[in-house]
Amino acid sequence: MDETSAKQILLTDFFTYYPAGGALYDSEGALLEINKIMYEKFAITDKHDFVLNNLFETDYLSDLQKNHLRSGSVLAGNQPLGYSIIPGFDSEGNTIGYTLLLTDTESYNPDRDMMRYDSKMKELKDISDKVAQSVPDTILLINNQLVVERIITYASETCITPEALNRRIDDLPGFIYPEAIKRKIASVVQKSLDTSETANMEFSIPGHDAPVVYFKLRLVPIQHKYVVAYIRNVSDMVEKEKENRHLSHQLSESRSMMELALRNSHISTYSFNFDLFRTCDKESCNHCFQFYGANNELLERNRYICRALSVLRHPEDRQDFFLLFNEIRDKNLEEHSVNFRLKNDYDDQYRSYEVIGKALEKDAEGKTNLIVGCVIDNQKHVEYENSLIKAKEKAENADLLKSTFLANMTHEIRTPLNAIVGFSDLLSLEEDPELRETYTGLIKANNELLLNLINDVLDISKIESDMLTFTYTDVHLPSMMHEIHQTMQFRVPENVTLILDPCPVITLNADKNRVMQVLINLLTNATKYTEKGNIRFGYGIRRNFVRFYVTDTGRGIPKSELGNIFGRFVQLKGNKQGIGLGLAICKGLVSKMGGTISATSDVGKGSTFSFTLPLNP
Question: Are 270 and 349 contained in the same domain?
Answer without folding.
Answer: yes
